[in-house]
Amino acid sequence: MQCQLVCSKCSKVLPLNTLRGQCDCGGVLLAEYDFERIGQAFTKESLKQRPTTLWRYFDVLPVEDKKSVISLGEGWTPLIRLAALEKRWPLQELWIKREEQNPTGSFKARGFSVAVSLLNEHGIHKVAVPSNGNASAALAAYAGRAHMEAYVFVPKDCPSPIIKECLHYGATVYKVDGLIHDAGSIIQEGQKEQGWFNVGTLKEPGRVEGKKTMGYEVVEQLGFEFPDVIVYPTGAGSGVIGMWKAFHEMKQLGWIDGDLPRFVSVQEENCEPLVTAIEQKKDSVTFEGNEAITSAPTGMRVPQPAAGNLLLSILKETNGTAIAVSKNEIKTAQRELGCQGISSSPEGAATFAALQHLFDRREIKPTDRVVLFNTSHAMKYMESLAHTVPQIRNYREVYATLS
Ligand SMILES: *Cc1c(COP(=O)(O)O)cnc(C)c1O
Ligand SMILES: [Zn+2]
Protein backbone atom coordinates (compact mmCIF):
# COMPACT_ATOMS: atom_id res chain seq x y z
CA MET A 1 0.00 0.00 0.00
CA GLN A 2 1.09 3.60 -0.59
CA CYS A 3 3.28 5.05 2.12
CA GLN A 4 6.03 7.56 2.78
CA LEU A 5 9.15 7.44 4.91
CA VAL A 6 9.29 9.49 8.10
CA CYS A 7 12.40 9.96 10.26
CA SER A 8 11.89 8.68 13.80
CA LYS A 9 14.29 11.36 15.07
CA CYS A 10 13.83 14.62 13.12
CA SER A 11 10.45 13.85 11.46
CA LYS A 12 11.77 14.61 7.98
CA VAL A 13 9.58 13.07 5.26
CA LEU A 14 11.01 11.29 2.20
CA PRO A 15 9.21 9.50 -0.63
CA LEU A 16 9.24 5.68 -0.51
CA ASN A 17 11.10 5.46 -3.81
CA THR A 18 14.27 6.77 -2.15
CA LEU A 19 14.29 3.24 -0.61
CA ARG A 20 16.28 4.60 2.30
CA GLY A 21 16.38 3.16 5.81
CA GLN A 22 18.19 5.94 7.60
CA CYS A 23 17.94 9.73 7.52
CA ASP A 24 20.91 12.09 7.13
CA CYS A 25 20.48 12.89 10.84
CA GLY A 26 21.12 9.22 11.70
CA GLY A 27 17.49 8.54 12.66
CA VAL A 28 15.61 5.50 11.37
CA LEU A 29 13.23 6.10 8.46
CA LEU A 30 9.95 4.28 9.02
CA ALA A 31 7.13 3.69 6.54
CA GLU A 32 4.02 5.68 7.41
CA TYR A 33 0.59 4.90 6.00
CA ASP A 34 -2.74 6.68 5.81
CA PHE A 35 -4.56 4.57 8.40
CA GLU A 36 -7.84 6.39 8.07
CA ARG A 37 -8.06 5.41 4.44
CA ILE A 38 -6.60 1.92 4.91
CA GLY A 39 -8.81 1.18 7.91
CA GLN A 40 -11.97 1.19 5.76
CA ALA A 41 -11.14 -2.11 4.08
CA PHE A 42 -8.45 -3.43 6.42
CA THR A 43 -10.61 -4.56 9.33
CA LYS A 44 -10.24 -7.34 11.88
CA GLU A 45 -13.14 -9.14 10.21
CA SER A 46 -11.49 -8.92 6.78
CA LEU A 47 -8.55 -10.97 8.07
CA LYS A 48 -10.67 -14.12 8.10
CA GLN A 49 -10.59 -14.21 4.28
CA ARG A 50 -6.91 -13.48 3.90
CA PRO A 51 -3.94 -15.73 3.05
CA THR A 52 -2.16 -17.52 5.88
CA THR A 53 1.16 -15.80 5.17
CA LEU A 54 2.39 -12.42 6.32
CA TRP A 55 0.85 -11.02 3.13
CA ARG A 56 -2.51 -11.14 4.92
CA TYR A 57 -1.31 -7.71 6.13
CA PHE A 58 -0.67 -6.43 2.58
CA ASP A 59 -2.54 -3.18 3.31
CA VAL A 60 0.13 -2.13 5.80
CA LEU A 61 3.15 -3.26 3.80
CA PRO A 62 5.10 -0.96 1.45
CA VAL A 63 4.46 -2.89 -1.79
CA GLU A 64 1.84 -1.31 -4.08
CA ASP A 65 1.17 -3.96 -6.69
CA LYS A 66 0.38 -7.52 -5.59
CA LYS A 67 2.20 -8.73 -8.72
CA SER A 68 5.48 -7.50 -7.19
CA VAL A 69 5.16 -9.84 -4.19
CA ILE A 70 7.90 -12.48 -3.82
CA SER A 71 6.57 -15.10 -1.42
CA LEU A 72 7.70 -18.53 -0.27
CA GLY A 73 4.91 -18.92 2.27
CA GLU A 74 6.44 -16.88 5.11
CA GLY A 75 4.72 -15.79 8.30
CA TRP A 76 1.56 -16.88 10.15
CA THR A 77 3.73 -19.21 12.25
CA PRO A 78 2.26 -21.13 15.19
CA LEU A 79 2.08 -19.50 18.61
CA ILE A 80 1.94 -22.35 21.13
CA ARG A 81 1.78 -22.69 24.93
CA LEU A 82 4.70 -24.18 26.86
CA ALA A 83 2.42 -25.54 29.55
CA ALA A 84 4.94 -27.93 31.13
CA LEU A 85 7.52 -25.19 31.56
CA GLU A 86 5.04 -22.71 33.05
CA LYS A 87 4.94 -24.81 36.21
CA ARG A 88 8.55 -24.08 37.07
CA TRP A 89 8.07 -20.58 38.50
CA PRO A 90 5.01 -20.83 38.10
CA LEU A 91 4.07 -18.48 35.31
CA GLN A 92 0.47 -18.08 34.25
CA GLU A 93 0.99 -18.14 30.49
CA LEU A 94 4.16 -18.91 28.58
CA TRP A 95 3.96 -18.89 24.80
CA ILE A 96 6.52 -19.48 22.10
CA LYS A 97 6.27 -18.08 18.60
CA ARG A 98 7.64 -20.75 16.28
CA GLU A 99 9.53 -18.56 13.86
CA GLU A 100 11.83 -21.43 12.89
CA GLN A 101 8.97 -22.70 10.75
CA ASN A 102 9.48 -19.90 8.24
CA PRO A 103 11.01 -20.60 4.80
CA THR A 104 14.83 -20.81 5.20
CA GLY A 105 14.30 -21.86 8.84
CA SER A 106 14.36 -18.44 10.43
CA PHE A 107 12.27 -15.30 10.85
CA LYS A 108 14.69 -13.46 8.56
CA ALA A 109 12.38 -14.74 5.80
CA ARG A 110 9.79 -12.15 6.86
CA GLY A 111 12.10 -9.19 6.36
CA PHE A 112 13.45 -10.45 3.09
CA SER A 113 10.11 -11.39 1.57
CA VAL A 114 8.99 -7.78 2.01
CA ALA A 115 12.36 -6.16 1.19
CA VAL A 116 12.90 -8.23 -1.97
CA SER A 117 9.30 -7.59 -3.08
CA LEU A 118 9.84 -3.86 -2.59
CA LEU A 119 13.15 -3.90 -4.49
CA ASN A 120 11.54 -6.01 -7.19
CA GLU A 121 8.84 -3.37 -7.57
CA HIS A 122 11.49 -0.68 -7.88
CA GLY A 123 13.57 -2.49 -10.51
CA ILE A 124 16.58 -3.56 -8.39
CA HIS A 125 18.40 -6.66 -9.70
CA LYS A 126 21.62 -7.02 -7.73
CA VAL A 127 21.56 -7.27 -3.96
CA ALA A 128 24.10 -7.77 -1.16
CA VAL A 129 23.87 -8.28 2.59
CA PRO A 130 26.24 -8.45 5.58
CA SER A 131 24.98 -11.15 7.92
CA ASN A 132 25.68 -13.48 10.82
CA GLY A 133 24.06 -16.18 8.68
CA ASN A 134 20.27 -16.31 8.60
CA ALA A 135 19.87 -13.00 6.79
CA SER A 136 22.15 -14.23 4.03
CA ALA A 137 20.19 -17.47 3.63
CA ALA A 138 16.91 -15.56 3.48
CA LEU A 139 18.22 -13.01 0.99
CA ALA A 140 19.65 -15.83 -1.14
CA ALA A 141 16.31 -17.66 -1.26
CA TYR A 142 14.11 -14.65 -2.02
CA ALA A 143 16.58 -13.17 -4.52
CA GLY A 144 16.64 -16.54 -6.26
CA ARG A 145 12.89 -16.55 -6.55
CA ALA A 146 12.90 -12.94 -7.80
CA HIS A 147 15.68 -13.63 -10.38
CA MET A 148 18.05 -11.22 -8.67
CA GLU A 149 21.78 -11.73 -8.22
CA ALA A 150 22.63 -12.14 -4.52
CA TYR A 151 25.99 -11.56 -2.82
CA VAL A 152 26.25 -12.43 0.86
CA PHE A 153 29.02 -11.60 3.31
CA VAL A 154 29.34 -13.66 6.50
CA PRO A 155 31.94 -13.91 9.28
CA LYS A 156 34.29 -16.85 8.78
CA ASP A 157 32.89 -18.62 11.86
CA CYS A 158 29.37 -18.63 10.38
CA PRO A 159 27.89 -22.15 10.85
CA SER A 160 28.67 -24.16 7.72
CA PRO A 161 25.11 -25.48 7.16
CA ILE A 162 24.03 -21.87 6.68
CA ILE A 163 26.82 -21.18 4.19
CA LYS A 164 25.87 -24.31 2.25
CA GLU A 165 22.26 -23.21 2.33
CA CYS A 166 23.16 -19.87 0.69
CA LEU A 167 25.06 -21.69 -2.05
CA HIS A 168 22.10 -24.02 -2.47
CA TYR A 169 19.87 -21.01 -3.23
CA GLY A 170 22.37 -19.80 -5.83
CA ALA A 171 24.01 -16.89 -4.00
CA THR A 172 27.66 -15.87 -4.17
CA VAL A 173 29.14 -16.23 -0.68
CA TYR A 174 32.10 -14.30 0.72
CA LYS A 175 33.62 -15.08 4.10
CA VAL A 176 34.87 -12.08 6.04
CA ASP A 177 37.68 -12.00 8.54
CA GLY A 178 35.77 -10.03 11.15
CA LEU A 179 32.29 -9.36 12.48
CA ILE A 180 29.02 -8.32 10.85
CA HIS A 181 29.94 -4.62 10.74
CA ASP A 182 33.23 -5.50 9.00
CA ALA A 183 31.15 -7.34 6.39
CA GLY A 184 28.99 -4.21 6.17
CA SER A 185 32.04 -2.03 5.48
CA ILE A 186 33.08 -4.23 2.57
CA ILE A 187 29.66 -3.81 0.95
CA GLN A 188 29.66 -0.08 1.65
CA GLU A 189 33.04 0.32 -0.02
CA GLY A 190 32.28 -1.88 -3.02
CA GLN A 191 28.69 -1.00 -3.76
CA LYS A 192 29.32 1.78 -6.28
CA GLU A 193 31.76 -0.28 -8.27
CA GLN A 194 29.81 -3.53 -8.04
CA GLY A 195 26.31 -2.09 -8.38
CA TRP A 196 25.03 -3.87 -5.27
CA PHE A 197 21.93 -2.68 -3.48
CA ASN A 198 22.74 -3.09 0.23
CA VAL A 199 19.89 -4.92 2.01
CA GLY A 200 21.67 -4.74 5.38
CA THR A 201 19.61 -3.97 8.50
CA LEU A 202 18.08 -0.47 8.24
CA LYS A 203 19.62 0.21 4.84
CA GLU A 204 16.13 0.12 3.30
CA PRO A 205 12.60 0.18 4.74
CA GLY A 206 11.36 -3.31 3.78
CA ARG A 207 12.96 -5.53 6.40
CA VAL A 208 11.49 -3.68 9.38
CA GLU A 209 8.10 -3.77 7.69
CA GLY A 210 8.40 -7.51 7.19
CA LYS A 211 9.41 -8.11 10.81
CA LYS A 212 6.54 -5.90 11.92
CA THR A 213 4.12 -8.64 10.91
CA MET A 214 5.24 -10.67 13.97
CA GLY A 215 3.56 -8.01 16.09
CA TYR A 216 0.33 -8.15 14.08
CA GLU A 217 0.32 -11.94 14.30
CA VAL A 218 0.92 -12.25 18.03
CA VAL A 219 -1.94 -9.87 18.76
CA GLU A 220 -4.25 -11.54 16.26
CA GLN A 221 -3.38 -15.02 17.55
CA LEU A 222 -4.06 -13.95 21.14
CA GLY A 223 -7.55 -12.82 20.12
CA PHE A 224 -6.64 -9.13 19.75
CA GLU A 225 -5.00 -8.77 23.12
CA PHE A 226 -1.48 -7.67 23.93
CA PRO A 227 0.75 -10.08 25.84
CA ASP A 228 2.36 -8.53 28.95
CA VAL A 229 5.95 -9.29 28.02
CA ILE A 230 7.79 -10.00 24.78
CA VAL A 231 11.19 -11.67 25.15
CA TYR A 232 13.19 -11.24 21.98
CA PRO A 233 16.78 -12.19 21.05
CA THR A 234 18.15 -8.89 19.84
CA GLY A 235 20.95 -8.20 17.40
CA ALA A 236 20.42 -5.18 15.18
CA GLY A 237 16.90 -4.94 16.60
CA SER A 238 14.73 -4.74 13.52
CA GLY A 239 12.25 -7.13 15.17
CA VAL A 240 11.86 -4.95 18.25
CA ILE A 241 11.43 -1.85 16.11
CA GLY A 242 9.03 -3.66 13.79
CA MET A 243 6.78 -5.08 16.53
CA TRP A 244 6.73 -1.82 18.45
CA LYS A 245 5.67 -0.10 15.23
CA ALA A 246 3.01 -2.77 14.59
CA PHE A 247 1.49 -2.30 18.05
CA HIS A 248 1.19 1.46 17.56
CA GLU A 249 -0.31 0.92 14.10
CA MET A 250 -2.91 -1.51 15.48
CA LYS A 251 -3.89 1.11 18.04
CA GLN A 252 -4.24 3.67 15.24
CA LEU A 253 -6.43 1.23 13.34
CA GLY A 254 -8.60 0.94 16.44
CA TRP A 255 -7.98 -2.81 16.69
CA ILE A 256 -6.69 -2.76 20.24
CA ASP A 257 -5.99 -0.44 23.12
CA GLY A 258 -4.08 -0.45 26.37
CA ASP A 259 -0.40 -0.51 27.25
CA LEU A 260 2.13 -1.99 24.89
CA PRO A 261 3.86 -5.20 26.05
CA ARG A 262 7.15 -4.77 27.88
CA PHE A 263 10.01 -5.54 25.50
CA VAL A 264 12.90 -7.58 26.89
CA SER A 265 15.95 -7.75 24.62
CA VAL A 266 18.15 -10.77 25.20
CA GLN A 267 21.82 -10.87 24.21
CA GLU A 268 24.71 -13.25 24.82
CA GLU A 269 27.36 -12.33 27.38
CA ASN A 270 30.39 -10.63 25.88
CA CYS A 271 28.41 -8.96 23.14
CA GLU A 272 25.76 -7.11 25.08
CA PRO A 273 25.76 -3.46 23.99
CA LEU A 274 22.09 -2.93 24.91
CA VAL A 275 22.51 -4.45 28.37
CA THR A 276 25.51 -2.21 29.03
CA ALA A 277 23.69 0.90 27.85
CA ILE A 278 20.72 0.14 30.14
CA GLU A 279 22.90 -0.62 33.15
CA GLN A 280 24.85 2.60 32.63
CA LYS A 281 21.63 4.52 31.96
CA LYS A 282 22.89 5.78 28.62
CA ASP A 283 20.65 6.73 25.73
CA SER A 284 23.04 5.65 23.03
CA VAL A 285 24.87 2.41 22.34
CA THR A 286 28.64 2.49 22.20
CA PHE A 287 31.05 0.08 20.63
CA GLU A 288 33.18 -2.21 22.80
CA GLY A 289 35.99 -3.24 20.43
CA ASN A 290 36.15 -6.49 18.47
CA GLU A 291 38.77 -8.21 20.65
CA ALA A 292 36.46 -8.38 23.66
CA ILE A 293 33.77 -10.22 21.72
CA THR A 294 33.81 -13.94 22.44
CA SER A 295 30.11 -14.66 22.01
CA ALA A 296 28.99 -17.26 19.47
CA PRO A 297 28.21 -16.44 15.83
CA THR A 298 24.47 -15.99 16.25
CA GLY A 299 22.00 -13.33 15.19
CA MET A 300 22.51 -11.62 18.55
CA ARG A 301 26.17 -10.85 17.88
CA VAL A 302 25.83 -7.24 16.72
CA PRO A 303 28.20 -5.01 18.69
CA GLN A 304 27.18 -1.82 16.87
CA PRO A 305 23.43 -1.78 16.30
CA ALA A 306 22.76 1.07 13.88
CA ALA A 307 19.49 1.96 15.59
CA GLY A 308 20.77 1.67 19.17
CA ASN A 309 19.08 4.89 20.31
CA LEU A 310 15.69 3.92 18.96
CA LEU A 311 16.00 0.46 20.54
CA LEU A 312 16.82 1.94 23.93
CA SER A 313 13.94 4.38 23.68
CA ILE A 314 11.55 1.48 22.91
CA LEU A 315 12.79 -0.54 25.89
CA LYS A 316 12.27 2.54 28.05
CA GLU A 317 8.87 3.49 26.62
CA THR A 318 7.51 0.01 27.29
CA ASN A 319 9.13 -0.41 30.73
CA GLY A 320 11.24 -3.17 29.28
CA THR A 321 14.85 -4.11 29.82
CA ALA A 322 17.82 -5.99 28.34
CA ILE A 323 19.33 -9.19 29.72
CA ALA A 324 22.57 -11.01 28.97
CA VAL A 325 22.72 -14.80 29.25
CA SER A 326 25.77 -17.08 29.17
CA LYS A 327 26.69 -19.72 26.60
CA ASN A 328 25.99 -22.42 29.17
CA GLU A 329 22.59 -21.04 30.04
CA ILE A 330 21.78 -21.03 26.33
CA LYS A 331 22.87 -24.67 25.94
CA THR A 332 20.80 -25.79 28.90
CA ALA A 333 17.78 -23.88 27.64
CA GLN A 334 18.21 -25.37 24.20
CA ARG A 335 18.03 -28.88 25.63
CA GLU A 336 15.05 -28.03 27.81
CA LEU A 337 13.16 -26.72 24.80
CA GLY A 338 14.37 -29.69 22.80
CA CYS A 339 12.80 -32.01 25.37
CA GLN A 340 9.53 -30.17 24.78
CA GLY A 341 9.80 -30.96 21.08
CA ILE A 342 10.93 -27.49 20.08
CA SER A 343 13.85 -27.20 17.65
CA SER A 344 15.34 -24.03 19.01
CA SER A 345 18.32 -22.05 17.83
CA PRO A 346 20.71 -20.55 20.40
CA GLU A 347 18.88 -17.23 19.97
CA GLY A 348 15.46 -18.74 20.64
CA ALA A 349 16.83 -20.66 23.63
CA ALA A 350 18.38 -17.45 24.98
CA THR A 351 14.89 -16.02 25.46
CA PHE A 352 13.93 -18.99 27.62
CA ALA A 353 17.18 -18.70 29.59
CA ALA A 354 16.39 -15.03 30.22
CA LEU A 355 13.16 -15.91 32.07
CA GLN A 356 15.02 -17.04 35.18
CA HIS A 357 16.89 -13.73 35.25
CA LEU A 358 13.62 -11.84 34.92
CA PHE A 359 12.18 -13.75 37.88
CA ASP A 360 15.32 -13.25 39.97
CA ARG A 361 15.19 -9.53 39.27
CA ARG A 362 11.43 -9.41 39.91
CA GLU A 363 10.87 -7.96 36.45
CA ILE A 364 8.23 -10.51 35.69
CA LYS A 365 5.12 -11.45 37.66
CA PRO A 366 3.59 -14.93 37.98
CA THR A 367 0.40 -13.51 36.45
CA ASP A 368 2.13 -12.27 33.30
CA ARG A 369 1.43 -13.56 29.84
CA VAL A 370 4.84 -13.95 28.23
CA VAL A 371 5.76 -14.58 24.59
CA LEU A 372 9.19 -15.96 23.64
CA PHE A 373 10.50 -15.81 20.07
CA ASN A 374 12.16 -18.94 18.71
CA THR A 375 13.75 -17.14 15.81
CA SER A 376 15.47 -20.10 14.12
CA HIS A 377 16.01 -23.88 14.04
CA ALA A 378 18.43 -25.94 16.10
CA MET A 379 19.34 -27.70 12.82
CA LYS A 380 21.44 -24.85 11.51
CA TYR A 381 23.60 -24.96 14.63
CA MET A 382 23.74 -28.72 15.19
CA GLU A 383 27.41 -29.02 14.27
CA SER A 384 28.48 -26.58 16.95
CA LEU A 385 26.03 -28.18 19.38
CA ALA A 386 26.95 -31.81 18.90
CA HIS A 387 28.88 -32.14 22.15
CA THR A 388 25.98 -30.85 24.24
CA VAL A 389 23.71 -33.67 23.14
CA PRO A 390 23.96 -36.94 25.09
CA GLN A 391 26.16 -39.57 23.44
CA ILE A 392 24.61 -41.66 20.75
CA ARG A 393 24.71 -45.30 21.87
CA ASN A 394 25.02 -48.51 19.94
CA TYR A 395 22.13 -50.74 20.92
CA ARG A 396 23.96 -54.03 20.39
CA GLU A 397 26.88 -52.95 22.57
CA VAL A 398 24.63 -51.65 25.34
CA TYR A 399 22.49 -54.76 25.18
CA ALA A 400 25.58 -56.99 25.39
CA THR A 401 26.73 -55.31 28.64
CA LEU A 402 23.26 -55.65 30.12
CA SER A 403 22.88 -59.38 29.50
C1 LIG B 1 19.01 -11.89 13.02
C2 LIG B 1 18.62 -12.79 14.10
C3 LIG B 1 18.28 -12.31 15.38
C4 LIG B 1 18.34 -10.84 15.72
O1 LIG B 1 17.28 -10.16 15.11
P1 LIG B 1 17.17 -8.57 15.03
O2 LIG B 1 15.75 -8.30 14.75
O3 LIG B 1 18.07 -8.15 13.92
O4 LIG B 1 17.62 -8.03 16.34
C5 LIG B 1 17.85 -13.22 16.32
N1 LIG B 1 17.77 -14.55 16.06
C6 LIG B 1 18.11 -15.05 14.86
C7 LIG B 1 18.01 -16.52 14.63
C8 LIG B 1 18.54 -14.20 13.84
O5 LIG B 1 18.87 -14.71 12.66
ZN1 LIG C 1 16.18 12.65 10.54
From TrEMBL:
Domain of life: Bacteria
Listed cofactors: pyridoxal 5'-phosphate
Gene Ontology terms for molecular function: L-serine ammonia-lyase activity; threonine deaminase activity
Matching InterPro entries: Ser/Thr_Dehydratase (IPR050147), TrpB-like_PALP (IPR001926), TrpB-like_PALP_sf (IPR036052)
A biological-process GO annotation: isoleucine biosynthetic process
Keyword field contains Chloroplast: no
Keywords: Lyase, Pyridoxal phosphate
Domain Tryptophan synthase beta chain-like PALP: 70-375
Listed Gene3D superfamilies: 3.40.50.1100
UniProt cross-references to PANTHER family, sorted A to Z: L-THREONINE DEHYDRATASE CATABOLIC TDCB, THREONINE DEHYDRATASE, MITOCHONDRIAL-RELATED
Protein name: Threonine synthase
High-level lineage: Bacteria, Bacillati, Bacillota, Bacilli, Bacillales
